Amino acid sequence: MANKDKLLANAQKFISKGQLPKAIGEYRKLVDAFPKDVRNRQKLAELLSRDNKNEDALTEYEVVAKHYTETGFYLKAIALFKQMQKIDASRIDIYHRLAELNEKQGLVGNALTEYRNLISFYENNQMYQEAIEVLEKMLELDAENLNFAAKIAECYKASGQNDEALKRFQSILEPISEKGEHLKVIKLYERFLDICPEDDRSRIPLALAFIHTGSAEKAIQLLKGLLKQAPEDTVVNRCLADAYVANQDYSNAQLTLKHLLKLADDDLDLRAYYVRICIDAGEIESARDRLEEWKDSFFQAERVSVLKGFYEELKALMDGDTVVAGTLAVIYEAVGETSKLDELDTSSQTPEAPEETIDAALDDEAIDDVETLDMIGEVVPDDVEVPELVAKDSDEDLPAEKVVAKGVELDLDLDLDLELDLDGPEVELEAPTPEVDDVSFPEVEEDAEVEVEIDLDDMGDLDLDFDEEIAFEEEVSEEEVSEEEVSEEEVSEEEVSEEEVS
Predict the structure, then answer these.
(1) Residue 4 C-beta-side C-alpha neighbours within 13 Å
(2) What sign for the dihedral angle of Cα 56, 59, 63, 68?
(3) Which of 11, 129, 158, 415 has the CB geometry, 3.0–4.6 Å to 26, for a possible disulfide?
(4) Nearest to 438, CA basis, from 411, 412, 465, 404
(5) If you ran DSSP here, which 8-state letter would residue 198 be given?
(6) Burial letters for 452-487: b for 16+ Cβ neighbours within 10 Å, e otherwise?
(7) pLDDT tens digit sequence for 248-283
(8) How many CB atoms lie within 10 A of CB 277?
(9) What residues contact 319, with CB distance under 8 A and at least 6 apart?
(10) DSSP designation for 396
(11) CA dihedral 224, 227, 229, 232 (to 10 degrees)
């Protein structure tokens, strides 16, 4: 023990005098004499590093670091490997060791940082397979990190493995598209569009992202290119119809849907979509006609709610349309909303009321006249001689405007606004017998008007920027373990001081 203390004292003396080679010699003696004392070996490594004997220093550091790793002192091992990394940053094995130790210690952020350093090294040296293996480990630590998954796809692409790159890319794309993160989708396609073939549906998510971000024109151009490769593809055609609608090009949207309906005539979703486009385009009658043509199939498929929504919308746009009202009545009965039928019936009869009132008035007057005559005939005795019916004035004596023929003529001047102008002269009917009072039609005022208005106005380096820019480097949440955590003083605090030696 005295020999050990003496060696430590000598070493300290040489260090204080700046005589590093002599101090190193003393510590070598200590290491040889007491090989299990890792503190002496660590001090030897430090002195070798200060004396620029890096290879020897790395050898001694590694022995001590392995000892701490095996005994579970991961933080001390991390500090020593960091020291080694400063001496020689090109040693890949040190990055691996540091990543593994940080992972064991639960310092995931630090582990990922070391793995990133490895990725940079492998990419710079075109070692893509090695980079992929490291990225897979990173993905295990942070499974939700899109950057890692995208980087794997990039490595496959860089190594010429486009099929595998496309699979990886699509696995990233699917959850992003489902979440509606359209800007991220576009950003990803900027990286991988060149590996997406034009003869399949792999570019459709990009078209949908364009539609949802206000770039419908770009979507239309992209989809037209896809249609050249597959003109009958229903998914591409449906997406193109969506793009036309987003661009308010309803004519082309209708043409596209007509093409789709030829391919799938019984598709009720397509039929409903076509009706929706007609309404949005202001083609209300066309929408009604298509619904009348297709309504039975909706009833059979028990999709009455779809019909109900459309017909109620049409009723608001075409109030008074008897076709719409009739079908809507059937729908209300089918869904059990019979309370709406009275209101529906009342509104459907309103537009025809003026014309029916005029006809009814004329008919009622004529009927009353006949009934009166019949009643008079019934009360006249058989033996009573009925005098001849003589008009007070002959046709010759009357002015032309007051000549009454066998019937009654009303000169109705109907203009385009459906206004009835009853400006003719007053017509008098004489009673056929003295016993019967004169019967005359009520006088029609000159300014009387019956209006029927049809109002149609109501129709009416992992630089994928997923936020601002997706950065491959992410903030490390854990506090990094610096070399100060295992400082020279901490490791050597139990060393024997000069006083102890003396």
Answers:
(1) 12
(2) positive
(3) 11
(4) 404
(5) T
(6) eeeeeeeeeebebebeeebebebeeeeeebeeeebe
(7) 999 999 999 999 999 998 999 999 999 999 999 999
(8) 21
(9) 347, 455, 458
(10) T
(11) -170
